[in-house]
Amino acid sequence: MTTEWMVFCGLDVGKEAHHACALDPAGRRLFDAALPQDETRLRELFTRLAEHGPVLVVVDQPNTIGALPIAVARAIGLGVAYLPGLAMRRIADLHPGTAKTDARDAYVIADAARVMPHTLRRVDVGEEALAELNVLVGFDDDLAAEATRLTNRLRGLLTQIHPALERVLGPRIHTKAVIALIGRYGGPGGLRKAGRGRLLVTARKANPRGAADLVEDLLTALAEQTVVVPGSTAAETVCPNSPPRFARPSTSAPRLRPRWNRSSMPTLLPAS
Known about the structure:
By secondary structure, the protein is α/β, with parallel strands linked by helices. The protein has helices at 39-49, 67-76, 85-92, 102-115, 125-161, 163-169, 176-185, 188-206, 211-223, 232-238, 243-246, and strands at residues 7-12, 17-23, 29-36, 55-59, 79-82, 121-122.
């Protein structure tokens, strides 16, 4: 990058507000104050700074809470970059004082961009793709965690009221046939009352493969217990409401995790 920057704006980003410190090439402060996490205020500041010449906006976190400042800066046509945390901590040790404040951090970021541009990293398409993947993978992780939680809860409930039935259904708890059976007929009482014919129809409709064996195993397990354990009545209400939520969605984002090393990404070259 060959742009000769006239303003170096460091942002110590935060959830509700950032602290911005803008320096000119000589190190004089052009701006040093808190800044709300708000597009209008960010545009006002960046536009005002652009009156001094080309502006480089540098953040300490390019994703999550730092995404809005980067998007606004790009929309105006400013340069953007970020200062990795490890580099920032090392550079901060070179500045006087030991207090950890937003104002000091913002100054350190701006000053690093001014005198040590080689420490910066580009916020390029790779970072944007990484942010998109993080959102998708994070959502997929949430779904998987919810599925695991509900699965364990249902298996624990079946173990409590009918251990033999849990031994049959537990290992198959994520299959379409078991989800359909529990979702329609509920717990042991409902399954027993449905009878072989209806169970077979429901299981085959969900997944014809192995439906007959599943139903036979299920009926055998039901016959192993004749007593009704306390809590069984409530379980008949709880069980039908669980499968639709704990089933792993087939349309969730692919469970792919980027293996990029940010240290290997191209650095921001000094201005020339």
